[in-house]
Amino acid sequence: MWASMIPLMVLATAPIEDAALPLASGDCLPRAAASPGVLFVNFEGAVLKKNCGNDARYNCSTLYDRFDGFVGPFKGTEDQRAAIIGSVKQDLKPFDVLVTTTRPPPDVDYVMVLYGELGPQTFAGLAPYIDCGDRFLNDVAFAQGDESPITGATVILHEAGHTWGLEHVDSVFDLMFPVNDSVSASFTDDCQNVVADTELTPATGSCTLAHTAFCDLGGQRSHSELLARFGPSVPDTTAPLIFIESPATRAPVVAGTAGSLVIELTDDRAPQVYDLTLRINGDLAFQGAVWERLEAPLLIPDPGTYLLEVEATDAAGNPATASRSIHVVDAASAEDFALDRESSGCHAAAPAPPGAGALLSLWLLSFGWRPGRRRR
Ligand SMILES: [Ca+2]
Ligand SMILES: [Ca+2]
Ligand SMILES: [Zn+2]
Q1: Quick one: 115 and 222 in the same domain?
Q2: CA angle 165, 170, 173 (to 5 degrees)
Q3: Among 97, 214, 251, 295, which residue's CB has the most CB atoms within a 10 Å radius?
Q4: Are residues 65 and 214 in the same domain?
Q5: pLDDT digits (tens, 9 = 90+) for 152-201
Q6: Residues 222, 273: one domain?
Q7: How would you classify the pairing of strands 140-144 and 111-116?
Q8: Which ligand is nearest to the CA of 235?
Q9: What is the CA(152)–ligand 1 centre distance, in A?
């Protein structure tokens, strides 16, 4: 099948990294059981931290000095981002790995590939090490922000591959080929020969404990190793659940007073990231990716009844909806409500909402939200 796709000539090419990578911690056996992975492709850039190892959650990188502590955002278009991410997702389709461009909350383990302006460099991408057996779960790798989806996805996955314990091999059709040659590659399901350098010098390899589960010494079967690490992708046909925690059903919102909007999301598949759309009286108030929870200040200036509508889809595209009427009252009505609750042991119904014909266009939703949970 591949034969017809072999290029007549391999164009002049460049090594992906400019030197051999070190090992994270020797020739380790893989983590015991397969567990789902998360790959966060960060197009927004980051200020790095040093002296805290490699930890995606806190932008810690041992490669800090290579980037003067800073990676700039990707300068390409939204369409180019979408094409690059589409290509990355396609290559990871066999595996239970969630690909996201929105930073996960800190209680989720994830690899971050910073895809953006790396400054003048002699490499297309860089990982801190080869993590034999994938013992470290929050690695940070780097890819120079190229506009081509093939090159982009190749470098992103090549560097992520090193953080998952993969080494260089001599096949141009494998993503772990050390030269950037614009050939469409994948994590191949064949034992490829491990190589020591970009001259493709044969080698027995460094992560032999992981590789020899699938190949003879000197071989690496990247597809099988990633399957063992993450498990196969699982079809997801179940919609998420949306819980509007705040504003609560019965408690009225006081006009002109800052309240809070809290939406909790759960799904049969975890970790999970959602596309969330929020409308208030039909007007779009928020649209974007959310992990587990959206929390934002909510300020509605005028009394009235407002309809809050939430739509969320999980990463597989299963949709769910939820809605709630919000009764916004003036301060005096809110006091009456509070007294009523005290005297009746909290069994009071909410006061009758003011006419729904109140001015609808003057609500103001001021979003100071952060995606996901509160940062540490
Ligand atoms: Ca790792
Ligand atoms: Ca689901
Ligand atoms: Zn490499």
Answers
A1: yes
A2: 85
A3: 97
A4: yes
A5: 999 999 999 999 999 999 999 999 999 988 778 999 999 999 999 999 99
A6: no
A7: parallel
A8: 2
A9: 20
